[in-house]
Amino acid sequence: MKAQSEEFNLELLPQEQLSPSIKQAPPNTSIIVDFDETLFLLNSSAEYLNSLQPRFIAAIILKVLSFTKPWRFLIKSSKDSEVRDWFLIIFLTLLLPWNIFLWQNTAKKFARNYSNYELITELSKNNKTNLIIATLGFQFVVEPILKSMAIEYNQLISCRFWQGASDRKKGKLAMVQESMKDEQISEGMLITDSLDDESLLKEVAYPFLITWSKAQYNSPMADIYFPLYYLEKIKRPGENYLLKAILLDDFPILFLAFSWLSPQPVLHGISIIFLAISFWCIYEYGYYENDLVAEKYENDPQISQNYLDYKHSANWWIPWIWSIAFGGIGIVFLEASRQATSIFDWGWLQNSNLGLDDGISLGIYWIGFLLVSRLCFWVYNYVNKKTRIWLYLLLQITRYCGFLVVTASNIVGMSALLCQIFVRSISYIIYRYAGGTKKSWPDLPEQFLKLLLFVPMIVGLSIVTADWSILFGGQTLAFLLWFLLRSRNQTRKIIGDFKLLRQDGAN
Q1: Mind giving me the DSSP string for 24-74?
Q2: Interatomic CA distance for residues 149 and 142, integer angstroms
Q3: How high is the pLDDT of residue 353?
Q4: pLDDT at residue 281 is higher than 80
Q5: Which domains does the chain have, with CATH numbers?
Q6: How many whole angstroms separate alpha carbon 222 and alpha carbon 234?
Q7: How far apart are the first and last CA of the chain?
Q8: Backbone Cα Rg of the chain
Q9: Measuring CA to CA, which residue among 279, 277, 221, 261 is closest to residue 63?
Q10: How far is 268 from 273, CA to CA, in rounded Å?
């Protein structure tokens, strides 16, 4: 084998260099060809997932798994990508097993429409070589496509069904070394489009790193809308925004501000969850529109490749269907929290005049609020960045106070919501004035600032109203405990930074 210490330049080569090399390859030379986005112009694993039936159910399961990432807890791996596709494919195949049979016909269509005929033509010009297909794709997915391709090959090296995770973890080089002799590899040729194949490219005599203009990667089920998917996976990938900003930052504040006052706080809390998701279905579309407007009008738009891949499948009306559905469920639980005597009491539904009329009215109010919030985000997206600074405050008001159209809060709850709104707005104002790039987001102790604002606000309200129950009530205590819990690390750091001037030369 070639020594790993030899100098190796990894660079993309033009397709024109490939043809003479294949023609001149000596007899019995092993030509190792990558499959996905090389011999096959799509990604076989992604297209298999995208073809699963029933498609809507498969899409929901796929996106829930993509959110929760259960493979991280089941399989230890340094790279998420090493086991993600295997877990998704094996889980969904076992859950929807008829897709193995459906794939046989689907694979024929893919082979006919997405074979790399240009590469196949070049490979067929030298039939004295040994053609090896090496891929990190899965055998039961790849093989049906290969059978329908107009190509003869000697061997397929691919990932197994049950052992796919271990195959992927050890990598393509190790898989090839297990299936081929050392001299076959060292004297062979590799044709691939993937930088992940660098270790294998270093081992062969004729490495060809080539991208094909017709190759494309389509994210599975990207054309099926799922609430918060765009925000989590495309607008803010890798930030865990759903967990950090919504589940841990928004929901507890909303529960304490609204559900605390309900005679049935559990039912009311459930209604807040559904209403919040309903709101985010519409609010999230504003983020997509923000990217769309940036691409169209800005000189240097801050948009990602994920957005470019997704934008052709986006539409405005499906989020409204989801939003109205979640909103309707939220309104039902909201009515239950007002009229039920316990969490298990649904007898109030039998009185149609009592429940239905109020529910319809609340539903109309809620849809009206959603329309207003959508209008606010639309205006925000189409004004310049200097104007957005001040409209951002309005967006935050819709995010936290819009629930007031269907349910009530009190002075303590509103104080906490205003703290949330002010702190988020302060961060945004600094971000815009600092340049408006990702690096411009200030590293402010936001959780500590909320605590710092909430305490004097509540004390001041107690003094002005002469109502000390505001300061010493259970709801205030719950807010204080939550703010303290959320700001504990920031508070510890701030206390640790406290020094006299003579002790800190930096000042």
Answers
A1: TPPTT-EEEEETBTTTBSS-HHHHHHHT-SSHHHHHHHHHHHHHH-THHHH
A2: 11
A3: 53
A4: yes
A5: 15-209 (3.40.50), 229-503 (no CATH)
A6: 11
A7: 61
A8: 29
A9: 221
A10: 9
